[in-house]
Design brief:
Elements (H helix, E strand, L loop, with lengths): L2 H13 L2 H8 L3 H15 L4 E4 L2 E4 L1 H26 L4 E7 L1 H18 L3 E7 L2 H9 L5 E5 L8 E15 L8 E4 L5 H12 L6 E4 L3 H9 L5 E4 H6 L6 E5 L2 H4 E8 L5 H7 L12
Parallel strand pairs: 3-4, 3-5, 7-8
Antiparallel strand pairs: 1-2, 5-11, 6-9, 6-10, 6-11
Helix pairs in contact: 1-2, 1-4, 2-3
């Protein structure tokens, strides 16, 4: 059902017949009659019935008229917004917990002040969970941590984090219990791979749903975890754990904004407010 058919249909209704509608549309009457008949054949219903010299809407025609008014009004609004340059709508984003808790709040606050007609819906989860949601088109873009498999996604490196190993006060750096987010967390993957290089393997993995829970669990002496230093600075029990430096190759981690296809106007506006690291994005 295209907008041109709806426009012709509505014009015939408003003008009370084909002849006057044809004049308004700058078409010959036979063309308007043909378009209406083709429209009726495609829909499988009659939209008009003849009553004397006039056309009268059928029940199906009255139903369609209500939808036509709404659809044509929405099309007009969309064109006006695009021509005016206004940015509005819903922007669905995903993010790892570290970016959502420590990096995004001031940026999203500034974005809201500049684009009040855009509603941001933010979901958090592990890198792999965000990539799956992006693949299912449940979100438009996501902030994810290295390492990750980008596939055919576009990506910007936007934040750089300093990662630290944390343990309970007085505990050995190489604890055998790992405290981390569920499977799919990039930092969990780093810690386990590092332990494997050292000839160690975790005896158990405790999965938590937030950094506050991870830090509290480590502070209680349960195990070890890798967290961004910026997140640890904001954590309620951040001073109750011992920090240990990681090897240089593990210490720095970038957060990337990833998206598929062409960015929508709301996403493009957000991207214009984000920092962009000069280093190449991860594969």
């Amino acid at each position: 059902m295209n907008l041109d058919d709806l426009h012709i249909f509505r014009c015939v209704v408003r003008e009370g017949g084909v002849t006057r509608a044809a004049d308004l549309l700058h078409r010959v009457p036979s063309n308007v009659t043909t378009r209406i008949k083709q429209f009726e054949e495609r829909l499988g219903v009659a939209l008009f019935r003849r009553q004397g010299r006039h056309l009268v809407l059928t029940e199906a025609g009255r139903t369609l008229l209500g939808h036509a008014e709404k659809l044509l009004r929405m099309a007009d609004q969309a064109e006006q917004e695009l021509r005016s340059g206004l940015v509005r709508g819903v922007l669905r984003l995903g993010s790892v917990e570290s970016a959502a808790g420590a990096r995004l709040p001031p940026i999203l606050s500034a974005f809201h002040a500049r684009f009040p007609d855009v509603t941001i819906e933010l979901q958090t989860g592990t890198t792999q969970a965000m990539l799956r949601q992006l693949g299912r088109f449940e979100i438009e873009a996501a902030f994810v941590s290295e390492p990750y498999e980008g596939g055919g996604l576009s990506a910007w490196a936007v934040f750089e984090e300093e990662l630290v190993l944390i343990t309970g006060q007085g505990a050995r750096p190489h604890g055998r219990t790992v405290v981390a987010f569920p499977h799919g967390c990039s930092y969990r993957q780093r810690l386990i791979e590092w332990m494997a290089e050292e000839g160690l393997s975790p005896e158990r993995i405790l999965e938590m749903s937030s950094y506050h829970a991870i830090v509290a669990c480590v502070a209680a002496g349960t195990g070890a975890a890798i967290v961004p230093a910026g997140v640890l600075d904001l954590a309620v029990m951040g001073t109750a754990v011992a920090r240990h430096p990681l090897p240089p190759r593990l210490r720095a981690s970038r957060t990337h904004l990833v998206w598929a296809g062409e960015a929508s106007p709301p996403l493009a506006s957000l991207m214009a407010m984000l920092p962009r690291l000069e280093t190449a994005p991860a594969a």
